Structure formats: C-alpha cells, structure tokens
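Narrative summary of target 7.
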Amino acid sequence: MAISEELQRLNLISGDRISEVFDDKYSDILDYVFATPSSFIEEMWSRYTNGQASLNGSVFEGLIACLLYRMGVLPIYLQAKLAFVPNVDFDFVLYAEEFGPIVLSAKTSLRERYKQADLEGMMLRQVHRRSKSYLITLNSAEAIRVRRKVGSGEVLGLDDVILATSCEFDELITELMGYTYIVPPQVDVISSSKVIT
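Modeled conformation, tokenized:
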C-alpha cells in the first residue's frame, strides 16, 4: 500500500497532488526515526525543497499533522471551524481539558500573513478566553521579527511565533504532549430554566 493511502486513511493528508508528493518523498514518514520534533521537520522539509511552490503550505501542514500524530497529540482537528468564531478555518485545533482550544497556524513564510493569524487569534479569544494560539513557520528571520511584535504587544492574538526547525518547536511539542486532549463538549445555544411560548 502506498504511504499516501495510509495517511489519507488517518486523515493526515488529502488530495491527489499532496498524495503524489508524500508517495515520492515520504514513504518512511510513519517509521522515520528522529531525535527531536525539529529534526523531523528539518529532515522532511529538506527532502521537499525542490517541490512546487503552490504545494508548500499543504506539504508543511501534512508534515506537522504527521508529527503530531506520531507524538500522540490527538485528536487533531484539521481545517477546523469553531463555534461562534465565524469565517475562520484554523489549520490545526487541539482541544485541551486545561485550556479549551489550542490553535496552530502553519505558514512556510510569513511576510504579512502573520496578521491573519493574529486576527484569527483575537477572534478566538473573544469566545474562548483561555485558548492558546501559535504560529509555526519555516522562515527564521520572519519568526524573530514577528516574535518581537508579540513581545512588545503589537500582536495580541498570538501566544508565540515558533520556528519549526528550532529548539522552541521542541519545547512547544513537549508542552502540547503534557496536556489532556478531549473531544470538545457540545454547545447549547440557549439555556434557560423558564421558557415562555
């Protein structure tokens, strides 16, 4: 069986073009032995460096999904919508008993796209006050620049910006592994002890 079939069965990737990339570059992705999460991303991304620019984001998301799966950080919600946070599809949502939603946005490069993740994080916090929001990237200079903005208060919706090939990424994955993940509770839109009809 091709690796893409197994990854699609696990819902870690989807689509024909992504499947072709994973079959070509990542046949060992579920068995590859790695020392740290950052070294896993670094090795896997280096295999792809000559790939199609139009697929970069989807491949990066697939690598992060595979890593989270391998590290046992489950359940993972991909391209997820959250109740009362309109018009936002989050790249990854984990639901921790301790905080509620933990959102991971994956961007191979940031430029001005960090602003979208910041806005989404602010919208998230309007509804889920204890939630956490992280932006994960592959661009070192942009990560440092936006991280400074988080530290100075210019960026309010993100808890941190993390370079996926750094020790900070290893620390984030270790932190995520320490939480208890649950299926989110169903939300009653209205609750009342008295209803007049």
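Helices lie at 3-9, 16-25, 37-48, 56-71, 114-127, 140-152, 167-177.
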